[in-house]
Q: What sequence folds into this?
């Protein structure tokens, strides 16, 4: 699937990139590989489906302000599986 969610880079320098992702229901990041360790800060509550290259779907419930971190190297697509808009901020550590 191609990227249908809106990605807005809010800040970037040689050490960090901060991107806000806004999704309408069923919109997607598109399949991608994380080149850097990253932190996600949900702006809204919502449900996502995370789809790996082998087709495995893992649902996740996001809560506004409840952050999580992941290491570089993950490959997946994130889809807004909810019926309402979803937003989160992704902070990549270069």
A:
């Amino acid at each position: 699937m191609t990227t249908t969610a809106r990605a807005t880079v809010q800040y970037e320098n040689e050490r960090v990139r901060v991107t806000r992702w806004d999704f309408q229901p069923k919109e997607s990041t598109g399949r991608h590989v994380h080149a850097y360790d990253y932190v996600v800060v949900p702006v809204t509550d919502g449900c996502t489906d995370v789809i790996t290259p082998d087709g495995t779907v893992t649902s996740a419930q996001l809560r506004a302000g409840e952050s999580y971190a992941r290491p570089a190297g993950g490959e997946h697509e994130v889809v807004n599986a909810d019926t309402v808009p979803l937003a989160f901020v992704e902070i990549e550590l270069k």
The chain has a mean pLDDT of 96. DSSP finds no helices and nine strands in the chain. The radius of gyration is 12 Å. The CA atoms of residues 31 and 77 lie 4 Å apart.
